[in-house]
């Protein structure tokens, strides 16, 4: 049985981030991944001459510059000495929002965003500006929240982080209504809600602000070559620091000895380590891989009460239609209604009434042969929307294709390749419960101090990924990987952690 300092279960972006940083810090690290490639929801697949992303198609946090502490993915790649091996393509506008009678680009920078949307709703210009600036203030305060909370009291925290403290329990809808009256502008402002899986009335305003400002200020990026390249580059970074990874290695059990972590078991083979970082679904990790009896009952109750996010239905298409002629953007959110509560309710009923259309070949033509394009159509769906996804899949694919045809006339006659990915597919490739796209929901009661923290009460067990703090999306899980590594090293403040990581290897 080989010994390691740290074993990471799963090679999603959260797991790879934690693994790479700990390898860099000098720990011996092994990553075990059940799939045949790294990345989790960021993995890619090839069909014929096409390179598809399975899920992830736009992220933030990749630039060398950005709002304070925002460029987390760039920092991680730099720490692993692989930032020069990858190219991120800046996407500005970061999204297009399409509604009946209104088609709006959502540009980067607070000024350009307010100017563009303000032109459409001149009477709401001031409210829009104030709301967007508030999002910026919250996003900036959150980057220092951990450090402030580590060394000060609550009253002082209120003084230093007034917006975060005031709005920590608020939803996007509650805050947006303080500033904007027109329901169409409220809908337009919230157009990216599918990125967080919850409608404005349920999503945390704080998490929303981090996401929106991440794309708007730090920048929105596509990874040249597809997001598999991001995962592969993180694996290269891990290897550069002597970390190991094994594929087709599903961890069945996490071993406990004398009340603490002792290692893991994969197909009857054992690997010893005093520290395990689970990048897998937390409920599965605790209840199936370890056993509830090793945790305090209150912790188990809390885990069982947490609400998970919806899954996603995806359609992967290759086409020879001229998307440039159709003025398509990298990503368009296409809604029939400005009311996202209605859109979400239809989604929860298993109906296809809206979708996002992503066309990565517009920014990275090498993903397909010349003259051809790739499209990914996505919509949120609950796993329970179908009894048998095998039977339901063709019907959902047809519905998505028909809806996309409204925005790309003639698409149905120009299909060179088409394949569907249902919530069951999402579950199969990542083992996330019911194919949850973002781990636990990011509602106000499940983010911040009330999310399941990166360090568990079982000595030696840590978490990285979208089931732990801070939350879902590639930006969020990258932060979670940093936080998990920091906790394993027992460092209280993130600034100190980065000082340590950056000092390694310097003369
Ligand atoms: C279709 C889709 C599109 C998305 N698009 C975007 C986007 O554009 N931008 C964005 O920021 N976010 C997007 N998201 C959300 C984002 O992909 C996730 O929140 C994030 O990638 C999750 O990362 P993670 O580190 O938690 O690991 P996951 O991606 O959940 O991967 C977990 C890994 O652990 C492995 N694993 C699980 N159990 C075991 C075990 N027992 N043994 C060994 N290995 C195991 C799995 O095989 C998997 O590789 C999307 C999600 C989906 C589903």
UniProtKB/TrEMBL annotation:
It is an enzyme of class 1 (oxidoreductase). InterPro entries: Amino_oxidase, FAD/NAD-bd_sf, Retinol_saturase. Keywords: FAD, Flavoprotein, NAD, NADP, Oxidoreductase, Signal. The keyword NADP applies. Pfam families: Amino_oxidase. Residues 13-489 form the Amine oxidase domain. SUPFAM superfamilies: FAD/NAD(P)-binding domain (SSF51905). Its EC number is 1.3.99.23. It comes from the Bacteria. GO terms for molecular function: all-trans-retinol 13,14-reductase activity. This is All-trans-retinol 13,14-reductase. It comes from Methylotuvimicrobium alcaliphilum (strain DSM 19304 / NCIMB 14124 / VKM B-2133 / 20Z).
């Amino acid at each position: 049985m080989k010994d390691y300092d740290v074993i990471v279960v799963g090679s999603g972006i959260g797991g790879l981030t934690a693994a790479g940083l700990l390898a860099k810090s000098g720990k011996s690290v092994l990553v075990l991944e059940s799939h045949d490639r790294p990345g989790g929801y960021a993995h890619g697949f090839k069909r014929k001459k096409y390179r598809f992303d399975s899920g992830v198609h736009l992220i933030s946090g990749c630039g060398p510059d950005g709002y304070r502490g925002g460029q987390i993915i760039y920092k991680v790649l730099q720490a692993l000495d692989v930032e020069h091996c990858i190219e991120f393509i800046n996407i500005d506008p970061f999204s297009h929002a399409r509604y009946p009678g209104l088609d709006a680009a959502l540009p980067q920078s607070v000024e350009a965003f307010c100017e563009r949307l303000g032109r459409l709703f001149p009477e709401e210009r001031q409210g829009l500006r104030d709301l967007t600036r508030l999002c910026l203030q919250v996003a900036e305060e959150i980057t220092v929240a951990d450090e402030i909370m580590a060394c000060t009291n609550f009253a002082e925290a209120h003084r230093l982080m007034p917006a975060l403290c005031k709005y920590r329990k608020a939803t996007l809808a509650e805050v947006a209504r303080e500033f904007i009256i027109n329901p169409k502008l409220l809908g337009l402002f919230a157009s990216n809600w599918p990125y967080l899986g919850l409608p404005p009335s349920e999503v945390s305003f704080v998490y929303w602000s981090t996401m929106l400002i991440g794309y708007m200020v730090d920048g929105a990026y596509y990874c040249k070559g597809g997001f598999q390249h991001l995962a592969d580059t993180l694996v290269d970074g891990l290897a550069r620091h002597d970390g190991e990874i094994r594929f087709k290695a599903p961890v069945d059990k996490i071993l406990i000895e004398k009340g603490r972590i002792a290692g893991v078991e994969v197909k009857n083979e054992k690997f010893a380590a005093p520290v395990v970082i689970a990048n897998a679904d937390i409920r599965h990790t605790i209840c199936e891989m370890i056993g509830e009896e090793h945790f305090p009952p209150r912790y188990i109750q809390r885990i069982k009460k947490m609400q998970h996010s919806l899954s996603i239905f995806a359609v992967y298409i290759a086409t020879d239609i001229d998307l440039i002629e159709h003025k398509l953007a990298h990503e368009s959110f296409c809604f029939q209604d400005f009311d996202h509560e209605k859109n979400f309710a239809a989604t929860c009923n298993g109906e296809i009434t809206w979708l996002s259309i992503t066309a990565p070949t517009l920014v990275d033509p090498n993903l397909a042969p010349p003259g051809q394009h790739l499209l990914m159509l996505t919509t949120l769906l609950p796993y329970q929307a179908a009894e048998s996804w095998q039977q339901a899949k063709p019907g959902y694919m047809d519905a998505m294709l028909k809806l996309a045809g409204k925005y790309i006339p003639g698409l149905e006659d120009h299909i060179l390749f088409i394949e569907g990915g249902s919530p069951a597919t999402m579950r199969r490739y990542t083992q996330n419960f019911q194919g949850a796209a973002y781990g636990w929901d990011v509602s106000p009661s499940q983010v911040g101090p009330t999310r399941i923290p990166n360090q568990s009460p079982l000595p030696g067990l840590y978490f990285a990924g979208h089931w732990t703090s801070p939350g879902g999306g590639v930006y969020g899980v990258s932060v979670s990987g940093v936080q998990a590594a920091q906790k394993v090293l027992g460092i209280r403040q993130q600034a100190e952690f980065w000082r340590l990581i950056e000092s390694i290897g310097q003369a």
